[in-house]
Amino acid sequence: FLMERKTHVKINRKEVMLAKLRKSCSCTPQKLKNFIMDFFPVLRWLPKYQCKEYIWGDVMSGLVIGIILVPQAIAYSLLAGLKPIYSLYTSFFANIIYFLMGTSRHVSVGIFSLISLMVGQVVDRELLLAGFDLNDDAPPALGDGSLQNDSLSNTTAFNLTIVGINAECGKECYAIGIATALTFVAGVYQVLMGIFRLGFVSMYLSESVLDGFATGASLTILTAQVKYLIGIKIPRSQGHGMLVITWINIFRNISQANLCDVITSAICIVVLVTAKELGDRYKHKLKFPLPTELVVIVVATLVSHYGKLNEVYASSVSGAIPTGFIPPKVPQFNLMLRVAVDALPLAIVSFVFTVSLSEMFAKKYAYTIRANQEMFAVGFCNIIPSFFHSFATSAALAKTLVKTSTGCQTQVSGVISAMVVLLVLLFLAPLFYSLQKCVLACIIIVSLRGALRKFRDVPARYHVNKVDTLVWVVTMSASALVSTEIGLLVGIVFSMLCIVVRTQRPRTALLGQIQDTSFYEDDLEYENLSTVPKVKIFRFEAPLYYANRNYFLKSLYSLTNLDPNLEVARRKKYEKKEKQHLKKGNHRTANGLGIGETTLQLVPKQIDFHTLVVDCSSISFLDTTGVNTLKEILKDYKNLNISVLLACCNPSVIDSLKRGGYFGKDFGSMQEMLFYSIHTAVLFTKDEK
């Protein structure tokens, strides 16, 4: 039977686009109100806030996250190559802006180790190009909060007139200038992606690519912190192969290790790891996580201050952290041009981590988010703080998990966390002057446990899917051994190549009938399948397009044990020889047979079928080459009196075949060439023959 297709009304795309444009450009009070409410989701949910039900969980989770944020912000400043005060600014502004614009109730947006590393790599590169010394162990500045000249922290001053700044600027000033310019451009990219609805870009970052990228970056972060752990002074490596170069420098200078820093690092790592393991084991009994990082920082600061570890043992310390806020400053446009390319991967990674975490927790707690609004939110979390000496932010899994485990209900908890950071900014920051950098390095390294544990999952990942494991290994290796940006690009390209290769060489099979049923399956995979006499059923498990055309033909000819082109050529050659013998009057053929026996030779024994059924159920689409390939086999097999039938074609494949002229001009033979199941094609063949 032939199913009748529905008639679809043709849509005038031009009129539709004009109608949408008119609708979007029109402005009414109600539309303006909806736009503002959508752009600031807090206006929708805050008036409905159930204070008695939500306030305790939000306050509790906000306090816990705020306590965790302070030591992490100070520690991650090492990754970004900036002073701790800028990390605190970043944590404060990100929480406030996401509270106003975010649609997720649970994610914690703020400073993130991976983003800090990417910022730090750009900052270090630009500092090096500007002629600054990357050794950050020089005597610290007095911490007066001035960004005009901090030459005390670096003896090299740089006149920035070449990049459009007509004032002399020191190392710290130039570093934060690069970071804010990078952050601003990344935020603009994210907002533009939201305007043009380019969120689909995140689809090309598979789970294997993201995990491999995070693990490779974690190895880079770990390597960068080793020099602080053991207290040696080596130059900060730049460019490709930073991980290998850094380890070579570490082993060359291992004899200069500071014993005080080594002992402090060992104690801190043992305490932090032990506390984390106990917290994970007894988390169901604890109402909130142990503030281990804060306790370690407070104790270490007191020991360092009263033990005078910096003066007596030359242990490197954080230095002065100014209180209050530095006056806002517009990011330099000319610096933006220098980092415009670097901002693109930063924008994509920041957006992907934020949206993926938002979707994960929205699904877990049964509510919805708007991915496009999330892109706007994270974009403005970068644009606005860049005027206040902050750098790029993203959602962080570890802090989000802590947030949910401590009873977070809404983003009010983010405001509470921001208030905790504000308290440190206004009053407590100078108290961390004597905090050793090795303690901060320990906090960073212990926070990488989750990413580094991915190595333990490799055997299980390999058992589930070998190709995904290969993508993970390639992305991780490139991110660690080359650079994070190159690693991300390599991971995306390699994962897409894997998809292409899998469609180029897909599974192919000859099918047999399941006994006493109308179903057919792979003859090599299942037992007790019966072969349909004189019929070959061929399955191709991929779209048929230009890249796999040759493999399709090769597999078909191999499985059916017949290449129609070779067979036709052989027959023509044989007929030519026979005609030559007959012209000479020889009534015996070239094989010594009589003329009457020649016909038997023209039908070789290996042709044991008269019908080929192509199972198209796995062919999702055809391009022009695919249609021509099917037309080619139809013609070639017809020369051998073999019928070719198509079964289980989806509507798009049928339309492609119609447009390509597979069924002829009037589609008159379509009922005899196309079937909606393999079994109907087989029954038709039996009836015909």
Search tags:
single chain, 689 residues, mainly alpha, Transcription Regulator spoIIAA, 2 domains, 7-stranded mixed sheet, two-stranded antiparallel sheet
Number of strands: 11
Largest β sheet strand count, sense and barrel closure: 7 strands, mixed
Please report which band the strand proportion falls in: under 5%, 5-15%, 15-25%, 25-35%, 35-45% or over 45%.
Answer: 5-15%
**Count of discrete alpha- or pi-helical segments spanning 4 or more residues:** 27
- The Rg value, from CA coordinates, equals 34 Å
- The unreliable regions are 137-167, 598-605
The chain-level structural class is mainly alpha
What's the average pLDDT? 86
Helical amount: 55-70%
Number of spatially distinct domains: 2
Distance linking N and C termini: 19 Å
Shape: elongated
Care to describe what's here?
It is a single chain. This protein has 689 residues and is mainly alpha-helical. The protein folds into 2 domains: 402 residues, no CATH class; 149 residues, STAS domain (Transcription Regulator spoIIAA). The chain is 58% helix and 6% strand. It contains 27 helices and 11 strands. Strands 5, 6, 7, 8, 9, 10 and 11 form a 7-stranded mixed sheet that branches. A two-stranded antiparallel ribbon has the order 1-4. Strand 10, helix 26 and strand 11 form a beta-alpha-beta unit. About 6% of the residues have low confidence.
